[in-house]
Design goal:
With about 325 residues, the chain is an alpha/beta fold. The protein has a single domain, classed as Alpha/Beta hydrolase fold, catalytic domain (Rossmann fold), CATH 3.40.50. About 50% of the residues lie in helices and about 15% in strands. The chain has 12 helices and 8 strands. The protein has helices spanning about 1-35, 75-90, 115-130, 140-150, 175-180, 185-190, 195-210, 220-225, 230-250, 280-285, 300-305, 305-335, and strands at about 40-45, 50-55, 65-70, 95, 135-140, 155-165, 265-270, 290-295. It has an 8-stranded mixed beta sheet with strand order 1-2-4-3-5-6-7-8, sandwiched between helices. Strand 5 (about 135-140), helix 4 (about 140-150) and strand 6 (about 155-165) form a beta-alpha-beta unit. Helix 5 (about 175-180) packs across helix 9 (about 230-250). The termini are far apart. The relative contact order is 0.13.
């Protein structure tokens, strides 16, 4: 009898915790959505609304390829926009977008929870915006989407840049809560109860780990609208991305040798999130035309901590892309 009562007490206590967490999550999600509003543009592609910042080039930059920036996991377009817009605005056409399901972008959960599915939508957005030539720059998870775009649309995506990339299969698995949150029913319950308060509590430590050993910018969380990641729908989308990444890169990495575009691979020697020996070295092994930039002492967020070095390398990548394009044009005329 005592065991039964204890069991009933534990069930009741668990239910009360879930109810309280659910109430807090609903209130906090409403507060986040009310306070953080989009300030970019929207386009509906294949029935899905995507949020982006389109920055046209001026002067000589109008003839250069567009630079398209894809953010990593647990983020949105404001991450790469914060790092690169001020330094590159005017010199090139720039596109910063919220990957499907993150930031203010929507997604079809069944179709867009993989790099390939997201690449399909992003290619359609590039076509909608009239971007005929693009160099796609992807950070972390965004690097896997960059590779998928390069494989899908090689004539439109004329150059590739991979920043602290996640691109190849790795030993082990992802954390359990990503798998749980990605589940159809249990994931929805998890995201609408304990996930948000837990994520808010753990976020400062997680950010320091991602930047380590480098310093986190003072205004990073506010400028990148970090609380958007905690919203239940966004949390689930992000979790589905991470939970399915290993399977996706296992499949698509076999096709990397066909990525003939000029490429740039950027890695920090002290990245604690992805293993350079697997991902960056894997890309250098598999890509036919890639340059490597190694940042001594760099962590997983090199676009914030080593911005100048990366911009210099991107400038060189643009020249390589232009030279290859000119060479192909001359060959076509000769025929």
């Amino acid at each position: 009898m005592i065991i039964v009562r204890l069991f009933m007490f534990l069930v009741l206590a668990f239910g009360l915790v879930l109810a309280a967490s659910g109430a807090y999550t609903a209130w906090r999600a409403h507060q986040i959505s009310d306070r953080i509003r989009p300030d970019g543009s929207f386009a509906t592609v294949d029935g899905v609304k995507l949020h982006y910042h389109f920055v046209p080039a001026s002067g000589e930059g109008k003839d250069a390829p567009f630079l398209v920036f894809l953010h990593g996991a647990s983020g949105n377009a404001y991450d790469t926009l914060m790092a690169f817009r001020k330094a590159l605005e005017g010199r090139y056409g720039l596109l910063f977008l919220d990957r499907p399901g993150l930031g203010f972008s929507e997604r079809d959960f069944s179709r867009h929870s993989s790099p390939e599915g997201q690449a399909e939508l992003i290619e359609a957005l590039l076509e909608r915006l009239g971007i005929g030539r693009a160099i796609v720059i992807g950070h972390s998870y965004g690097a896997a989407v960059t590779a998928a775009l390069g494989l899908r649309a090689p004539e439109r995506v004329t150059g590739l840049a991979f920043l602290a990339p996640a691109s190849h299969p790795w030993p082990g698995d992802v954390d359990w809560y990503y798998k749980l949150a990605a589940m159809p029913v249990a994931g929805e319950i998890f995201a609408r109860t304990v996930a948000l308060p837990s994520a808010e509590m753990l976020a400062p430590t997680a950010i320091e780990r991602v930047f380590s050993p480098n310093r986190v910018p003072d205004d990073y969380s506010s400028r990148t609208r970090l609380p958007l990641v905690f919203l239940p729908s966004t949390f689930r989308a992000n979790s589905a991305d991470i939970a399915g990444l290993k399977e996706s890169v296992t499949r698509q990495s076999k096709r990397y040798p066909s990525l003939s575009q000029p490429a740039l691979v950027v890695t920090g020697t002290r990245d604690k999130v992805v293993w350079p020996s697997i991902h960056s070295e894997g890309l250098m092994r598999d890509l036919p035309d890639a340059d490597l930039l190694v940042l001594e002492g760099g962590g997983h967020m090199p676009h914030h901590t080593h911005t100048d070095e990366i911009i210099s390398a991107l400038d060189k990548l643009v020249l390589r892309v232009e030279a290859k394009t000119a060479g192909l044009t001359q060959q076509a005329r000769a025929k």
